[in-house]
Design goal:
With about 160 residues, the protein is an alpha+beta fold. It has two helices and eight strands, in the order H-E-E-E-H-E-E-E-E-E. The N and C termini lie far apart (about 75 Å).
Length: about 160
């Protein structure tokens, strides 16, 4: 007659606790970096949205042969785009949208935060500001708006 021994398969409580502790320590180290990456990604979206709205405004001015106005500020990182006096909400950034979607972003504009860019029928503007966008973790982007209505993102400042 043979005695059969049963082996219990599974994990002990101590093994489970050690595994959970290691996972928690790794999570604590990863989460702050993950949050910074998310903020950086959101800031990048904002940085790319402004040139798209400027290009749209320039295109509207040329195709409709009427002035298109982009008003920067008064709060930095906000703008309002209007065609023939009608504001285009789709191509504007309000302070409410900024605070809801990009809470850790700050901007500064050369010549003060409130400026008006008026596109004429040929797509040229009257002012050429430089906008500096800074993320919470210190990343900065510099956007130069040229008289031709083109926005240049300085590659050497994006980090």
């Amino acid at each position: 007659m043979r005695l059969t021994t049963r082996r219990f398969r599974g994990f002990t409580l101590v093994e489970m606790m050690v595994t959970i502790a290691i996972a928690a320590i790794l999570g604590i180290m990863v989460v702050p970096n993950l949050l910074d990456m998310v903020d950086s990604g959101k800031t990048s979206v904002l940085v790319n949205r402004f040139p798209q709205d400027v290009a749209w405004a320039r295109n509207q001015a040329v195709t409709t042969q009427q002035p298109v106005v982009i008003t920067l500020g008064p709060a930095a990182c906000t703008w309002s785009t209007s065609v023939g006096g009608t504001v285009s909400a789709e191509h504007s950034m309000t302070a409410t949208q900024l605070n809801a979607n990009y809470p850790n972003v700050t901007c500064s504009v050369t010549g003060g935060n409130s400026q008006t860019l008026t596109f004429d029928s040929q797509g040229f503007i009257n002012a050429a500001p430089t906008i500096t966008v800074t993320a919470k973790q210190g990343q900065t982007w510099t956007l130069q708006v040229l008289a031709s209505g083109t926005v240049i993102l300085n590659a050497n400042t994006a980090s």
